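Hello Y.,

Per our agreement to keep a running log of every chain we model this quarter, I'm adding this entry. I've kept the format consistent with earlier entries: sequence first, then predicted structure.
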Amino acid sequence: MEVRLSRRGRYLLEPLYLGSGDFLGMTEMTRRVTGLQELIVPPREWTMPALDTAMGGFLGELAVNRFLYQDPILTAGYRPYTSQDPMRSISWKQSARGMGLISKQYDSTTEPRVAVLVHADASSEEQMPAVEACYSMARTVCRMLEEKAIIYRMAVNSTFDVLINGALVAGNQWNKPLETGRGYGTEHFRRALEILGRAAGQPAESCERFCTEYFGPGTQDSCIMITTQPEETVRSCLHLAPGRSLLILRPEQPTGKEDAE
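Predicted structure for the entry above:
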């Protein structure tokens, strides 16, 4: 039997009883499937030209910043020290060989990384469409990052109902956001869809604490923030490293984009 569910969410499948037999009722077979099971329905894609435009500009900046900013971990070679070089770029090991002060030459950043943060708050039933729009936008954003093979992680600030070892843990007991690890690929995207399907629409913690926990100061990732909050409120909670990009998406106007200075 094929079943089509049109609404995002988490559905419990109660114990199932199956019975079959022949037309005359001479034989009968029964089976009972026990144990609590669940079905997770992810949100639909968000189709909106403004979102495509905003993401196109953001992805273009990632490609440019890859070559504009150097990665201090990737040493490409050495050259004589100049007065414009910072002291921390000096290779004291190479300089000790009697060749004068030697500076390290760093390679450009090779793997742009993105943190996708979702903070959607529905204080009333009338605000639920905006929350659902945030989850749909998050799915589309992750899909576009997957298509570009960009490493990303996603965190959703929401309460969740989960099954742990076959037991139901209610959302008010699982009072913690869920996140994926860094990566991309089929399994990674599937995990992102599962989290978006489980989200209950009520924040597990404040926006400020959520941003600090999942995008703290010094984080070297760029950030896509999908939220129902005003842009100025969210921007004050996020601290970008130099050369990283910030894209703030809201259901009403998903176009707010800026660079860190």
